[in-house]
Amino acid sequence: MQINISSSEQEAGQRAAQKGADAICAAIEARGEASVILATGASQFEVLDALVDMPGIDWPCATIFHLDEYIGIEATHSASFIRYLKERFLARVPAVKDFVAINGNAANIDLEIQRVSGIAKQFDIDVAFVGIGENGHLAFNDPPADFETDVPFIRVELDKKCRTQQSNEGWFPSFEDVPSQAISMSIKQITKSATIICTVPDERKAQAVKTALEGEITNLCPASILQTHANTFFFLDTAAARLLRKTAG
Predict the structure, then answer these.
(1) For residue 187, is it within any domain?
(2) Is residue 65 one of the residues assigned to a domain?
(3) Helix 45-52 and helix 81-88, axial crossing angle in degrees, nearest 10
(4) Are strands 34-38 and 232-237 parallel, antiparallel or unpaired?
(5) Taking Cα atoms as reference points, which of 92, 99, 182 lies closest to residue 142?
(6) Is 185 domain-assigned?
(7) Which residues form the domain of 163?
(8) 208 strand-pairing partners
(9) What is the layout of strands, in order, in the sheet containing 181-185?
(10) Residue 169 has pLDDT above 90, yes or no
(11) What pLDDT digit, counting tens, does each position of 191-214 carry?
């Protein structure tokens, strides 16, 4: 893994987007197509803003995977990650080859998980854009995360710290409004990605960053698994990196 520390959240997002764009373009040049996972949430604002402005990406050759989604909310809900990606990414780039969206409000969640898992099994992911939660989660794999399942998408329980983060960030009116379950890409599926771009700004993530990057590899800090992925690139601002012993440019 490689750690990059920037002076601001905007700079970290710009550098993350550039690294991801290079990998996307390389995949398209090599195979004529690319498969990309996009994360959501506050940590990805600057990344997506920079990514949509990157020149030279042939988006009609890219299949976009949705990383996770709450169970039980409509795609039009203000906290829906489908809505987030449509507004912050899909509406701002040329039409992509495909957008594999998770329907968290499906009548049968098990069948929906089977559907998106079946699609994921057909692809080798070139680039995954991810973040780290305040509880160390990767996607919505809260601790203790399942490090063993080979199923691409799974149903997960959201812990109190995760739900509190979603409420504090303003996605929901109150803690009680935050769903208790979600559909998430699994840990093993994420780590199958050829390149992982992990962007984590903000001082409130500093302890999670330190634990994930410098602590033991454990499902009690799910993002720590990224230590085992040789082609993972961390993009942090100085606030998120403030507790690290390691330094990088």
Answers:
(1) yes
(2) yes
(3) 40
(4) unpaired
(5) 182
(6) yes
(7) 2-237
(8) none
(9) 68-70, 181-185, 153-157
(10) no
(11) 999 999 999 999 999 999 999 999
